[in-house]
Amino acid sequence: MQISSNSSKKFKNGDRPHEDSSSLLSSEERYKNLVANIPGAVYRCTCDCPGDAGSMRTMVFLSEAIQEISGYPSSDFINDRVRSFASIIHPQDSKNVDAAVAKSVATRTPYILEYRIVRADGEISWVYEKGQGVCCEADETRGRQEGQAEIEELLSAVVSPISPIANSLSSVIYLDGVILDITERKRAEEKLRKTQDFLNAVLQNLPVSVFIKDAVEQRFIYWNTASEELFGYSRDEVLGNNAADLLEAEQANYLQVQDLEVFATGKEVDLPEETIQLPRRGKRILHTKKVPLFDDSGAPKYILAIAQDITESKKTETELSRLALVAQKTQNGVIITDAEGCIEWVNEGFTRISGYVLAEMLGQKPGDVLQGPQTDPVTIAQLRSALTAGEPFNHEIYNYRKDGKGYWVALSIAPIYQENGELEGFIAVQTDITDRKQATESVRESESYYRCIVETASEGVWMFDADSTTTFANSRMAQMLGYTVEEMLGRSLFEFIDDEAREIAESYVQRRRQGIRERHDFQFTRSDGSHLWAIVSATPMFDAEGEFSGVLRMITDISDRKQAEAELRQTLQELEFEKFALDQSAIVSNTDEFGVITYVNDQFSELLKYSREELIGKTHKLVNSGYHPADFFKQLWSTIRQGNVWRGEIKNQAKDGKLLWLDTTIVPFLNSRGEPHQYVAIRKDITDRKQAEEAVRLSESQLRTKNQELAKALRDVHKTQSMMVQNEKMVSLGQLVAGVAHEINNPVSFIYGNVMHADDYFQDLLRMLQLYQREYPEPTEAIREEIDDIDLIFLLKDLPKLLTSMKMGAERIRQIVLSLKNFSRLDEAEQKQVDIHEGIESTLLILQHRFKETAGHPKIVLLKEFGNLPRVQCYAGQLNQVFMNIIGNAIDALEEAMETGQWAEGELAPIPYCPSPTLRICTGVKYEQAAVSDDSIGHPSHIVIRIADNGPGIPIEVHQRLFDPFFTTKEPGKGTGLGLSISYQIVVEKHGGELKCHSAPGQGTEFAIEIPVARS
């Protein structure tokens, strides 16, 4: 193995005998072999320590193991041939390494270092370096063993323990040491640290109580957050105490005995349900597990306990068991399904109604098993729609039992949602209403049957209550009298009789009250004033108690039949005229119950360009334009099939392709069962109106767009005006500040410059006076009196202080003037490279008076955490304006907090847990994304200025309008509402940066400003 070194130079020039050199070379060869097998790189270097500048080491020997550690061959470092060893030390560690080596050389002590190096492949590695100095006596020369001793000293740093190098008379001529690669160890340590932090965080944030007690005194040594919430005691109250300090004596003794029992068994103890009385939480039910922990000798050391509060779950479990019993025993059928509608549970009531047991229904969908051919498809569709949407459903539905028999149920379905809003399933309750439906159907059929008889009877049917008021009249009766049924209902019998027949009618009514049933002729008066002669069959009616309740009269028209026929012909003619008028004024079509066209009028054919023959027998799909979705027609048919009139607008297509809008009314004709058997559709062409409406909508849309553009332009004008006003103010203020600074600068410069000369003159006079005192130690009496009168000793002591104070004052004024000039920046209208810290310092100097303590207001603490910022290309004066606005607002917020006492609290605050009004300004650098994660190697892209206060914070509604022009929360006269708006424009629009505000009530406020280092 080759070892690079220049140590052989020391044996040239005939300094030693030849035989000594041979012996030394033989010894050196042995040590080279030893060095080759050392786990690390062995080195010898010279060290130059020039004062406080650190140390400069030059390698004169370095084993080849350094190539495996650094990636560079050892020959690169010998005498700094290619690079110095210091050049591969990480820049952040270089200063510490130099300082440690310099200190070791100065104090004659060994050194041990751990630092980072940058390998040849760019990777970062950690190394361990151990070394010591090689010294020589100042007054003695080396012996013949110098060569062999040199190599032994080379290895002393590896094989010898650390000890002082030499006495104070020794001088260090070399540094010998070894360098080991400890990257893997460092990674393992970092991984172990992160694992420990992770486990601690997990344990602290577990949702169950975890605590640890020592085995001797059973005192608590660990108490997590869940324990605080469960037992009601904070960590500070618990740690160091035992159960007797926190609980009642009886409860504490019980827990102590339980802990001793855990140690006695040496195993985990699981207590599924344990009732404990807590002073601050009351009676709680806990699920507790306790585990004993022993040391290496097997002696008890700790007890680990995990407790979970199951009080509420036990209550819930009891309530659920009661509800389950009720659900199981109820007479109604109960079904529980999952989110997909598959059955998970049915009760006994369901089995009794349907005949199916739980085992047969488990995993099935109710509709697949219970529904059949007579189940209403519309109801099924509505049911499925509700289930898909996760909505409740209440309806009556026809189902089938296991034996095939049908039955009616009132079905009520409710969705079940989890706490996170996710659908968990459905619960359905069904009530058997078969008997009720059959009774209702029977009554309805009977009513329909008799109503059909009454309505189709050739005689009039007329019913009255006990006061002779009409309660029912069939259409025949109304027709006889020339009224509608609605007009007759509620009217008295005597309103249909003239005065001559009234007396006779009253006598008939009295006879009915007496229960006399009879048949007689009687004359009624029609609505047109004519008379109707009829045969009246009157039957009195009585209630269950036998009280008179009314009269049923059957009326048979016996007017002249010819006259009746003439009237009938006239009526038919009128109906024909009405039909003709309808055909001339509207588009009419008839369809059967399946939607097949049975009739269309001429208007229909003319408008849609189809002949009557082409339409009859077809459906309206023939004229469907495809404009309306399927749900539109589904809803239409659902409406008319239920016997309801449908009104709406439909877009149809004529045979020639023209699209037409028709205002449509569809009227169902019902049969005796109340079911539609045909439909009449009456339409009106509204195509022109729809086109006009579309034109109006388009015009409104264009007008709306124009209004939005005008509103935006108006906002831009307001914003520009505000910028111009504020800029004019800042220009005037800058001119004023610059003028004042200029005027003050000349006399201050005069004073500052002359004070230094005055100090020099005084020193000259002082030396002259001291010379006089030495040369003439015995002054005259007059001189002594004058010395006493002027108090020369005090004057000589105080005058230097006076001059120093004058220099400090002048320097202070000079700094203020410089800050005013920097703040105004009148000479920097264009972007320039500036130091941001100068602008911040100038702003703080101008606002310094607001930080001081005043009557009733404490001092505002200023924290400056400035990073190493590069110079930034920007408009310096405008950025100073931003700093002035934001820092001024922060001071306003702190002054408000001084009045109200509302300060930021908690870990989320920018300045957490600070008891006094505090303003913090931090600066830093953001780097571009680079292959190496080290910030010192990356290229800076932005600078970041963070200005934070621990004031009351900003409400959400104010935060949303923070950067709006003219928006302010200050009292009138104290703010224009333009500061933050203009600051936002300066940072974002002028500099291409970002201005963000992070704040919440009670958490303080932080403004973050990001400015690009250089704009493209």
From the spread of the alpha carbons, the general shape counts as elongated
How many strand segments?
A: 33
Quickly give the structural class: alpha+beta
Unreliable stretches (pLDDT < 50, length at least 5) are: 1-19, 137-169
Strand order of the largest sheet: 1-3-2-6-5-4
Mean pLDDT: 80
N- to C-terminal distance: 56 Å
How many helix segments? 29
Query: Percent of residues in helical segments?
Result: 40-55%
Q: Strand percentage, roughly?
A: 25-35%
Describe the overall structure:
With 1016 residues, the protein is α+β, with helices and mostly antiparallel strands. The protein has 29 helices and 33 strands. The strands form seven sheets. Strands 1-3-2-6-5-4 form a six-stranded antiparallel beta sheet, sandwiched between helices. A hairpin with a 5-residue loop joins strand 32 and strand 33. Helix 1 runs parallel beside helix 4, helix 23 (687-775) runs antiparallel to helix 25 (792-824) and helix 25 (792-824) packs across helix 26. The longest helix is centred in the last third of the chain and has 89 residues, at 687-775. The protein starts with a strand and ends with a strand.
